[in-house]
Structure formats: C-alpha cells, structure tokens
Design brief:
Elements lengths: L4 H105 L8 E6 L2 E7 H4 L9 H14 L5 E8 L13 H18 L8 E7 L10 H7 L1 E8 L1 H8 L7
Parallel strand pairs: 3-4
Antiparallel strand pairs: 1-2, 2-5, 3-5
Helix pairs in contact: 1-3
Amino acid sequence: MRVSHAVKVALFFAPMLFVSCGKQYKAQIAAKDAQITQLQEQLDNIQNTNTSLLDRLSDMSVINMAGSESIQESLQSINRQSGFIQDLTTKVQEKDSINLALVMNLKRSLNNIADDDLQVEVRGGKVHVSISDRLMFRSGSSNLSGQAQEVLGKLALVINDHDELQILVEGHTDNVPHENECDEDNWDLSVQRATSVVRSLHEAHYVSPERMTAAGRSFYLPKGDNKTEAGRRVNRRTEIIIMPRLDQFFKLMEMPDSPG
C-alpha cells in the first residue's frame, strides 16, 4: 500500500508537534505550580496573621476583663465611701441636734443664774457648762455650797434625760499658790473640787457614776489673763462637759471594711 505524500509529511512532523506541545504543557504546569506555591505562601501568611490577631484579641480580652474588674472594685469602694460619708453626716447632724436641744434645755433650767456665773456653749462638738468658783465653793475649799447643790440638781435633771452621753467634770484654778492641810497645791485643789461635783451628781442627784470622770486642770488651761484680778476670777471655775461616749464616737469614725 502506498502512503500518500500528505500522510508522510504529517508523520514526519508529528513527533516534533508532540515534543512542542509537551514542552508547552510542562511550562504551563510549572507556572501553575509556582502560582500554587505563591498562593500557599500567601495563605500561610494570612493564617499566621490571623493567629497573631486572635492572640492579641485574647490578650485584650484578658486586659479588658481585668480592667473591668478593677473599675468595678473602684466603683464599689466609692459607693462604700459615699455611704460612709452620708452616714457620718447624718450622725453629725443628729449629734448637733442633740447638742442644740441640750443647750436649750440647760439654759431654760438655769435661766435664773447670772451670765457672769454660768455659761452654756458648744465647743468642739461638746456642750460646756462653765460655773464660776464663787457660785460653787468658798475660797480655797472643795466643799460645795448650798447654791452649788441647787445648780447641780437642775443640771442632773437634764443630764439624766440623755443617758447615752458622758460627763467630764474639770476643776480649774487661777495661778495664785494655794496650800492647806487638805490640799497640797492648786492642782490638788482642782482635782478635789471636780471630785466633789462628781460625787454630788451621783449621790444626791442619781447620775450614773459609770458616765462620769473627774479631772483637775489647775491653772494650766486659763480662759482669762492670770495677771489681772478679772482674769483670775474667770479662771476659777468648774466646767461640766457633756459629750458622746468615746467608744461610740470612735466606732462612728471607722471606715467600713473593704471586701477581701
């Protein structure tokens, strides 16, 4: 059988075409492989970036949670302090109201006594009743006069209506040296006078002794000038100080405990 010329030509060029197409396909495959490799690298980079972002978001979540807890604790602390301040303000207002009522009642009970011999005032959150020496004692003596007993009786009526309050009785003298068979000096005299007042309030007027303290201040806390007769007269006095119980006062000043 004779092969035509055209067939011969085709058979001659067929291997060349196959080789040419094979090279082209290999080139395309290589290009695709390179593209796949590049895309894989991009994908790996994106995944790494995502992992990093997730880690950072996790850290931020922890930070935000810690920050939120810190803010919450701060708010709770502020609320506790605000409540404490409001409660303290209320207690102070109540104490001021009690003091005001106490002063008014004392002045009403003692309105027949001259202002030169008795003063009632509020100082440092406490009610001070200052009674002159000439109304309470004879010169150089710690024995109470009859008028002193009358004054203390009126004081006791008011004091006994406020059994939540404590009583401090202070004896004060001038700086003129004093000494006799009973008292060694001015300090001793001031203590003896304070003790006489406390004893009378308890024994004659039924004020509970647990509420009272006697103290002698001698001439170390003057109200007037000890160089003048007028000043010395002012300094010779008995002060009855009516005040809140110290344990209640300190408890009032305590801050509420913070949660553990």
